[in-house]
Amino acid sequence: MEYRSIDNKGFCENELDLPQAIDSFHKLIIYYMDERSEKIGVEELSARTGISTRTINQMRSEKESEHRFSLKYLVAVAIGLHMMTEHSFYLIYLNGQSLRKSKRNEKFYIYLLTECNHYCVAACNDFLRANKLSPLTTAEIFSYS
User: For 60-101, what is each residue's pLDDT tens digit?
Assistant: First the structure.
């Protein structure tokens, strides 16, 4: 199966740095979904990641700011939104977590966020399965073709 990679050349120079007001998990999700040149709706992100619309709405909600989402979901969202590497790790940090190189699956997540953030979640899931790891999500995922 072939996957189309996403070209990140559309970033403006000033988009490399986040606005200072983005200091919480839900604000970063909202920024990437609503305020960038490629606006992405909840249903679109759900289709890209295999994460339910309910969970994505929880991620966007300030009321859920203390909720810890699974690392798999955080990586899937970062890839689904084609977040820049630094922003992906910041997203995980804002959710009160971190990735450890000492854990095999998390080492692969680090690789996905640094080298594969321009691919779709379906391709990343195939990569994880090929390395005998469970996929980020198990639902049917829209892949770019």
Answer: 998 877 899 999 999 999 999 999 999 999 999 999 999 999
CA distance linking residue 90 with residue 68, whole number of Å: 14
**Alpha-carbon torsion angle 106, 108, 96, 87, nearest 10:** 170
Distance CA 13, CA 126 (A): 33
User: Token pair for residue 74?
Assistant: 């955080």
Domain-by-domain residue ranges, the chain? 23-130
- Using only the alpha carbons of the chain, give its radius of gyration: 14
Max intra-chain CA distance, the chain: 41
Rounded Cα distance between 42 and 133, Å, is 27
Q: What is d(CA 96, CA 73) in angstroms, rounded to the nearest whole number?
A: 14
- pLDDT for the residue numbered 10: 40
Residues 6+ apart with CB under 8 A from 131: 108
Q: Please tell me what DSSP assigns to residue 78.
A: H
Q: Does domain 23-130 have CATH number 1.10.260?
A: yes
pTM metric for this prediction: 0.84
Q: How many whole angstroms from its chain centre is CA 96?
A: 16
